[in-house]
Design brief:
Layout: H1 2-12, E1 16-23, E2 26-31, E3 39-40, H2 45-58, H3 69-72, H4 89-93, H5 117-121, H6 138-152, H7 156-165, E4 174-175, E5 189-191, H8 193-204, E6 208-209, E7 212-213, H9 217-223, E8 228-230, E9 233-235, E10 240-241, E11 249-253, E12 257-262, E13 267-273, H10 280-289
Antiparallel strand pairs: 1-2, 1-13, 3-5, 4-5, 6-7, 8-9, 9-10, 11-12, 12-13
Length: 290
Amino acid sequence: MLDEATRLIEEKGYNVYRACELRGGKYAERVYRFSNRLNNIYSLSKSVTATAAGILCADKRISLDDRIADYLREYFPENRDERLERATIRDLLSHACGFERGILFEEDAYTHGTDDFARLALSVKTDCGPGEKTVYSNATYYLFSVIAEKATGQTLFDFLRERLFVPLGFEGYAASTCPKGHTMGATGMFLRCEDLLKIGKLYLNEGTYEGKRFFEKRFAEEASAPLFPAGQRFYGLGFWRNGADDRYFYGDGKYGQLLVIDAEHDAVFAMQSCDPALSAADFAKTIRQG
């Protein structure tokens, strides 16, 4: 995928910083432009947050079938739709809580006149029951971040640092928080491109990394499954497929952040960039087929 990515970057003139690949256990990288050591991975943060959910499930601190109301009762509005009471953690991670619209995106996160993002998120109107459809939103992964905090007694970022970043040997990490100090979860994580590959390798190996298990194979399968159609793509738990029958899956973020896991070719590909014209979905499809 790396050679095809380089061809496409040069052909289209995309503003890509760096790309790297692990194929058959062999590492390769290309540096195209100068960048910071750590870069914002935007919505690719959701794939990292979903990984935290997998670890917490393996720890038996949470279950994907837990109802979010059991953790977030204090944030529910009085006039809430009773259907929201049935929503589960799985519904959060698949953007399928029943919310009629998405909120807490970078461009609007601080324009609602409140610093209580959890209460704001749970006040969004619902137009269907949980599990019926996907409406992409940063609010769902933010709410999971608050749940993770309830389950562990530490912020999602501190949990990830202790249970994922340090054990995998990440060389730097940072994450955005809301005004109340909760990790945003959906966006705003800052990581190295090379360290993104390690997360991809975890999924390539169905939950293990260099012999250590982080989450169960069943979680890896569900995270990457095409659970819900979302426009022309399909969403699982933090990961996308362009087609329901595709043999690869990926996490992506604004401006061309990308992590592709391709078990068929024993390969993982990661890329960081800053180009509003770069569609990560189309890029992933092209380099996979090239």
